[in-house]
Amino acid sequence: MSIRGAGRNFVVRYALEQIVRFVALMFAVSFVVFALVSASPIDPVQMNVGQAAYMTMSEAKRAQLAQYWGVGTPLLERYANWLASVLQGDWGTSLRFNAPVMEVLGNRAANSLALLGIAWVASGVLGLLLGVVAGVNRDRWPDRLVKGYCFVLAATPTFWLGLVALMVFSVWLGWFPLGFSVPLGKSAADVTLLDTASHIVLPAIVLSFVGVANIALHTREKLVDILESDYVKFARARGLSTWQIVRRHGMRNLLLPAMTLQFASISEIFGGSVLVEQVFSYPGLGQAAITAGLGGDAPLLAGIAVVSAMLVFGGNLTANILYGVVDPRIRRGQMRERAGRPRIAREARDSARVEEALVPMPAMVGTGAGQVPSAGALPSVRRSVAQTSSAVRESLQLGTLLHAPRRRGANRVATFAKFVVAAILLVFVVIAGMALSDMATTTDFSLKSLAPCLAHPFGTDWMGRDMLARTLSGLSTSVVLGLVAACVSSVIAVILGAAAALCGPKVDAVISWLIDLMMGVPHIVLLVLISYALGKGFWGVAVGVAITHWPNLARVVRAEILQCKQSDFVMAARRMGKSSAYIAIHHMVPFVLPQFVVGLVLMFPHAILHEASITFLGFGLPPEMPAIGVILSESMGYLTTGMWWLAVFPGIALVAAVMLFDAAGESLRKLIDPHTSQE
Hints:
The chain has 679 residues and is mainly alpha-helical.
């Protein structure tokens, strides 16, 4: 068989493997979704017939309806019946919308797909452009500006960004409508394209910011690597400018990783759309999911969760197939694997290739300095450049060594000081919030709706409660809950990550499958499902956030243990006859601990943001607890009254707390990670 035919067969086989994996994951997700919905304490009979009808119903009728809705039937039997109906196109009937679930999904999906599509494309383009600007201007003010923008954006909850945008551009400036997808009072026949566009622009802009940070920072790092490569040095020697190099050689290396990352960001953007649709009252799948969860509409909630998983897995499937088709190294690696090449050597070689550019050395055309050297002259040219580069590197390293100790010491002191300041501020927030908890709930209607002043720096709310005390108390609650959830999640991550690395390939495959399953459903949708199953309250939210946040840390633990297992000192310890327990305690734990601690600290801000988001949607903490999500959710009803401080100050406090955790985690990483300790 020819090489071209083998490559074509591989592409077909690779695509089929990915499709089979997609189908298997979808069946697994459907079971998890059905199990979570079934675990809800809500009585399906009472929910379907209503409270009044249920109270007047005879016991015989209740028993008959309970049998009809599967009460008391084993879970697997109910799942099989539900799955059979779904495969036949019958997804059940929505209780809240009094219509078939498929009809509701079809009507809402059109609005959501339009919003998601615009935001997805805009975030990809904006992220790529910002990453290119930052990479070209490395360590200069444009680079610092872009990185600062990305870090602030990553710490900003999507729903608060939507609240601020709605308040500024709709309430104050009047540039956009206050919400919805079409003007109120207009029939569908009278709605124009301009009406639809005016209602979708602001939500799409807010949602597009969700995926910008990851793509921009990834593109920046990739472009920095490209600009430091050997073939770019040749291009500079030919007299090409930086932007010519980026246009001719950089973009072709950046587009494929950015495209893959963009497809992988569908989960994040869909989760953001749930929050954006709720803020802007935009009638899409996200708002329908919230309505279904709060209203006990189990068929609709299950349908939306399955559809969201289809979108996420579909994006990952597309990215995997495109990568396999476009990047020939994946085809070569898969073919060599089937040919029986050693796995460790292959992984080492392929991991090294990933860091290289995706295109060969550019052709040198033109005359003079850009003249094409002959084939026989190329090795001598490469040797000359390599020798020159080596001499330059040696001289630079010598200068670095002469001056590094003092600079490294100053950097470590500054980094440690940054960590201490961030930790002290976070501890102060928690203690102050606990101390002011009584004041945060004290009402005084004679002081209601006061603007910020000296006596009340954050103003007061409609019940006369001091917003500074309320904000600190709510932030303290969110921080404590995030810490508890992150610690529980870290325990899960350690157990599963260590099991994947130490218990053989079968266990590793099962845990990897479980991670893919967890990452397949958007976090917000999964949190809604878990909250629906467990109910509101502190521990319900803590368990939900913990269950959804362990996969990334588990991957880190697994990778660190695998790297430690193959290290020279572990192999030497085995040859010396040391027991597995000795190796684990004296070698693996010290090796894995730094990355684990850093991963744990960096998990805190994500847990806090997700707690605030799920509480904002109404599934987290009850309204009587002054959490930040509750405060910001209540502020939505007062955006048009001029009480801007109800939304602004609590949101700024939340962003500041998340950035403090990020700063503490990054500082800790530099202090204890040997790979970055010299920065």
